[in-house]
Amino acid sequence: MQICSKKYYLVLHVVSDQIYYTIYFLYIATKDQYIIKTAMREWEKYTCIKFREKTISDINYVRFQNGHG
Predict the structure, then answer these.
(1) DSSP states along the chain
(2) N or C: which end of the chain has fewer CB within 10 A?
(3) pLDDT computed for residue 2 by the predictor
(4) What are phi and psi of 17, to 5 degrees?
(5) Which pLDDT does position 68 carry in this prediction?
(6) Residue 37, Cα to own-chain centre: how many angstroms?
């Protein structure tokens, strides 16, 4: 699965229907955080994928951050 936009590019190999994520809030504007979360809700509406905020025990997760890597 690939998600592309002007600022963000994400490639995932999905093993389960749950994708754990974290947003590095320090460098992502509130507006962009809203866009990311809205996009996740859209994916949830049309696929079996569910996004959940990562917890301390989650090892594999997606980290949204501004910039490279």
Answers:
(1) -EEE-SS-EEE---SSSEEEEEE-GGGS-HHHHHHHHHHHHHHHHHSS-EEEE--TT--S-EEE-SS--
(2) C
(3) 46
(4) -85, 0
(5) 61
(6) 8
Asked whether the CA dihedral 7, 39, 23, 33 is positive or negative, the reply is positive
b/e per residue 22-43 (b: at least 16 CB within 10 A): ebeeeebeeebeeebeeebeee
Size of the chain, expressed as the number of residues it contains: 69
pLDDT tens digits along 8-54: 555 555 567 889 999 887 778 889 889 999 999 999 998 888 999 99
The domain spans of the chain are 2-64
